[in-house]
Design goal:
Order of helices and strands: HH
Number of strands: 0
Radius of gyration: 16 Å
Structural class: mainly alpha
Helix content: 40-55%
Keywords: Membrane, Transmembrane, Transmembrane helix
């Protein structure tokens, strides 16, 4: 269960690394989070309708 929370332990150190290849939700702006959430909702709806149909 601890692996779900270990993504934020290095956010202070990652600020000094400009070429960090990984991305995190913590680095996304509020609008990017809204957009990502919208995509997830659309995908869930599409999957639900595909199962029902």
């Amino acid at each position: 269960m601890a692996h779900a929370h270990d993504h934020g332990h290095s956010h202070a150190a990652s600020q000094a690394v400009s070429d960090d290849p990984g991305w995190s939700l913590l680095r996304l702006s509020a609008w990017n989070r809204v957009g990502l959430a919208a995509v997830v909702v659309v995908l869930l709806w599409a999957a639900t309708l595909a199962v029902i149909a």
